């Protein structure tokens, strides 16, 4: 197990050697994750671990992949997707062109869920979905649209609970334990690496999703990320966060209007 | 806005449980009146789809006020907090609560071990952990962590638990400060403030 002071040393060295700044990540979670990889990879001396991270860029990338939490699901929180389906998509219908951004998309389950909703609403053909993450490895998985077959039962239940009426299995092809989602869903997706700590706004969007990413940040970094979203959101656009996250402390009141009790806010000025 | 320097020294009572623990909580919580000097955090195994039922039930049964747990809410003495479904609950040094969606631990999210271990790191000898009824091994490692950091640990007497496995597992793996039946747990909590 590493000590607090060792964690701080690691954070400083990583910043110095690679320019990745984990200094504003929530320590409670970060420490668990660093301890986890430290043990998994069989280290017993912190110095040894530190010099591996320092001098082996390959290992550093592996560490970033492992300390980020990538757990995700399709149609996670079905009631959230129901609101998107019933209240948000109809408002986007009139637009000639719809831009969406999934920040911290992980392996893409959320992105494919959204593509399914857009397709069912007849909007996918005029949409463009940007999906970004700090972790390059998860983006590779997301691009392929291949998820474990054993998850499909749960996902199809989530899909149904979110108001889905189709046969969910029509959206993928099952093969040797994997479910490969249909190519047409991925046609409008663009994947790229983007770091919410240091990168800037790159486009203007009608909907931005950033779910269960801010929980890993301290309040200051949360504020930075939300300001970045604010800069990237068109007037009357929507910002969607995870069920336990809020913009309350980060933007001036009156600028956004919350949809009922959902974690969805509309930019009204 | 709450100031950072206030309440920097208060006790935390963290209660973990699984199957059979809800009925214990329903007997204990109504008996607690004011808890000015400490915070209560409840981590029980629950269905990932249960959004608010548990919170509503606890709020209904207890005199002490419940504070909804969202990411980075501040832990304050005098309130009850409940770990939300489908997240692990973690403790920050600045007395804020963090949530985490990482892998289940002991088939559970929230996991009792995860919260106990995290709370132990921050609250050390100001932490009191109680492990209730359940049929899974979650909680044992967490209690060990609390003990190692100088906190106090209490286990429900397995003979009084609907599901004795969880308290039994703890007792077999360490020596708790107290093994108590339900009325004794109530009495014990009432003395924490003194
Ligand atoms: C728990 S997943 C959330 C996945 C999905 N949005 C959901 O709610 O199911 C968190 C993701 O945030 C990413 N992440 C962490 N730090 C980041 C950063 N600084 N910039 C961009 N993404 C980040 C992680 O790599 C991970 O894939």
TrEMBL record, chain A:
Coiled coil where?
none
Return the InterPro entries for the record.
Answer: Bact_Chemotaxis_MeTrfase, CheR_C, CheR_MeTrfase, CheR_N, SAM-dependent_MTases_sf
Q: Which SMART domains match?
A: MeTrc
Please give the Gene Ontology molecular function terms for this protein. S-adenosylmethionine-dependent methyltransferase activity
- What PROSITE patterns does its record include? CHER (PS50123)
- Give TM segment ranges: none
Q: Which Pfam families match?
A: CheR (PF01739), CheR_N (PF03705)
Q: What positions does the domain CheR-type methyltransferase occupy? A: 1-247
Write the protein's name.
Chemotaxis protein CheR
Automatic annotation (TrEMBL), chain B:
- The answer to keyword Transmembrane applying to this record is yes
Originating species: Flavobacterium cheongpyeongense
Per its record, the protein catalyses:
[protein]-L-glutamate 5-O-methyl ester + H2O = L-glutamyl-[protein] + methanol + H(+)
Gene3D superfamilies referenced in this protein's UniProt entry, alphabetically: Methylesterase CheB, C-terminal domain
EC number, UniProt record? 3.1.1.61
Tell me the superkingdom of the source.
Answer: Bacteria
Arranged from A to Z, the UniProt key words for this protein are: Chemotaxis, Hydrolase, Membrane, Transmembrane, Transmembrane helix
Please state what class of enzyme this protein is: hydrolase
- Example GO BP: chemotaxis
Give the transmembrane ranges.
12-29
Q: Which residues form the CheB-type methylesterase domain?
A: 6-185
Q: List GO terms (cellular component aspect).
A: cytoplasm
Q: Active-site residues?
A: 18, 45, 138
What InterPro entries does the record tag this protein with? CheB_C (IPR035909), Sig_transdc_resp-reg_Me-estase (IPR000673)
Q: What is this protein called?
A: protein-glutamate methylesterase
Q: Please give the coiled-coil regions recorded for this protein.
A: none
GO: which molecular function terms?
Answer: phosphorelay response regulator activity; protein-glutamate methylesterase activity
């Amino acid at each position: 197990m590493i000590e607090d002071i060792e964690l701080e040393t690691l954070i400083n060295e990583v910043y110095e050697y690679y320019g990745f700044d984990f200094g504003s990540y929530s320590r409670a979670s970060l420490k668990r994750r660093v301890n986890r990889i430290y043990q998994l990879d069989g280290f017993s001396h912190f110095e040894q671990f530190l010099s591996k991270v320092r001098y082996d860029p390959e290992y550093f990338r592996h560490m970033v992949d492992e300390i980020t939490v990538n757990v995700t699901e399709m149609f996670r929180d079905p009631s959230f997707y129901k609101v998107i389906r019933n209240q948000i998509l109809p408002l986007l219908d009139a637009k000639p062109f719809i831009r969406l951004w999934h920040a911290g998309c992980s392996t893409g389950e959320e992105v494919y869920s959204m593509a399914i909703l857009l397709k069912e609403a007849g909007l996918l053909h005029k949409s463009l979905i940007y999906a970004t993450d700090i972790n390059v490895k998860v983006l590779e998985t997301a691009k392929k649209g291949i998820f474990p077959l054993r998850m499909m039962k749960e996902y199809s239940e989530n899909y149904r609970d979110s108001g889905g009426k189709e046969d969910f299995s029509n959206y993928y092809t099952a093969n040797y334990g994997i479910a490969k989602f249909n190519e047409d869903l991925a046609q409008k997706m663009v994947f790229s690496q983007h770091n919410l700590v240091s990168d800037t706004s790159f486009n203007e969007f009608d909907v931005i999703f950033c779910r269960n990413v801010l929980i890993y940040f301290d309040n200051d970094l949360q504020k930075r990320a939300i300001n970045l979203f604010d800069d990237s959101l068109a007037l009357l656009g929507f910002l969607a966060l995870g069920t336990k996250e809020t913009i309350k402390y980060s933007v001036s009141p009156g600028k956004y209007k919350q949809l009922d009790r959902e974690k969805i806010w509309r930019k009204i000025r | 806005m709450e100031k950072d320097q206030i309440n920097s020294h208060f006790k935390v009572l963290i209660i973990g449980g699984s199957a059979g623990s809800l009925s214990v909580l329903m007997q204990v919580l109504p008996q607690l009146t004011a808890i000015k000097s400490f915070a209560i955090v409840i981590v029980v195994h629950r269905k990932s789809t249960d959004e608010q039922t548990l919170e509503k039930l606890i709020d209904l049964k207890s005199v002490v006020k419940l504070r909804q747990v969202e990411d980075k809410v501040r832990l304050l003495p005098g309130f009850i907090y409940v770990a939300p479904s489908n997240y692990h609950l973690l403790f920050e040094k600045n007395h804020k609560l963090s949530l985490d969606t990482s892998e289940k631990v002991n088939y559970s999210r929230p996991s009792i071990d995860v919260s106990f271990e995290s709370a132990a790191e921050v609250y050390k000898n100001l932490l009191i952990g109680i492990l209730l009824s359940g049929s899974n091994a979650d909680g044992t490692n967490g209690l060990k962590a609390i003990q190692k950091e100088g906190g106090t640990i209490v286990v429900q007497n397995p003979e009084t638990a609907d599901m004795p496995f969880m308290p039994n597992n703890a007792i077999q793996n360490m020596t708790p400060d107290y093994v108590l039946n339900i009325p004794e747990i109530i009495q014990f909590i009432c003395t924490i403030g003194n």
